[in-house]
Amino acid sequence: MAAGSITPPGAPEAPERRRGLVGPFTGRQIVAAFGSVAIVTAILLVVTAPIASPPPAGVAPQPTQYAIGPAIEGLRVGDIAPELAVVGPGGKPAPLLDLTGAPVRLAALRGRPVWINFWASWCPPCQDETPVLRDTFDAYRARGLALVAISVQESTVDDVRAYAAKYGLDYTVAADLAGDVFRQYRVYGLPTQVFLDANGVIRAIVQGPVDAQVAAADLALIGLPPQATASPAAPSVGPSGGLPASSAP
Questions:
Q1: CA distances (Å), origin 54, targets 44, 61, 63, 249
Q2: Torsion, Cα of 102, 103, 109, 115 (10° steps)
Q3: Per the CB 3.0–4.6 Å rule, which of 2, 55, 166, 207 could disulfide with 59?
């Protein structure tokens, strides 16, 4: 009987209460609780595991388009590309201007294949794509390619100008600060590519960045197939298998 307790005469003593392993819980209850937690954890690991395998070590993920608006139906292949117009003074249409202040008109580019690139200096996939545009234009400019890069959602024209100067961009760059051409072409992500043939007809649209191979394939659709590299001519041989008689010492 515990000290200080009083048991009435003739009453049986109450059995002493057994203490649990942790407070009022027995060891069996604690083991059961841990088992439940382990089962729930295993289920969560299975449910939340990625379906696709992670990319192999050393393989970097490819950049994708940076969405800046809801996906909408834009221009289609086969459409005539609309003129690059912005809202000018008094709400009247005005031509888009390049970084030198000169108007950029598709009508003036008729007869040449045109690559229109919507981009922004702050857009990571656009930044990754810049060397592709620069190198591809250098390779095709002598064949008549016109590359028009239209920057959107920039703070100032000076920001665009600084980016073009930093990376030595020789193609036409224009700043569509108000997004007039962007909305006219119903673009919703950056970068977006529109390839026009010599008649101004859209032959390809790419939602996202391009690499050199994709760019070459789309340029072929607008009349600029890759140039075949000529292999060096093998020296002619004489009747006996040696050098021609004129080449003999």
A1: 19, 10, 16, 65
A2: 90
A3: 55
- Which is nearest to 139 in space by CA: 219, 75, 198, 233? 219
pTM over the 0.85 mark: no
- The strand pairing partners of 127, in sequence order, are none
Buried b (16+ CB within 10 A) or exposed e, 116-147: bbbbbbebebbbebbebbbebbebbeeeebbb
Residue 174 sits at φ, ψ, to 5 deg, of: -130, 150
pLDDT for the residue 66: 80
User: In the chain, which ranges are E strands?
Assistant: 66-67, 85-87, 93-97, 103-104, 114-119, 146-152, 172-176, 189-190, 192-196, 202-207
Task: List CB contacts of 43: < 8 A, sequence separation 6 or more.
Answer: none
Residue 2 has pLDDT above 70, yes or no: no
Q: Could you give the domains of the chain?
A: 81-221 (3.40.30.10)
Residue 235 CB burial class (10 angstroms; 0-12, 13-18, ≥19): exposed
At residue 65, the pLDDT reads: 85
Q: 85 by DSSP, 3-state: which?
A: strand
For residue 117, the 8-state DSSP code is E
5: which 2 tokens?
Answer: 């307790």
Query: What is the rounded average pLDDT of the residues 98-108?
Result: 97
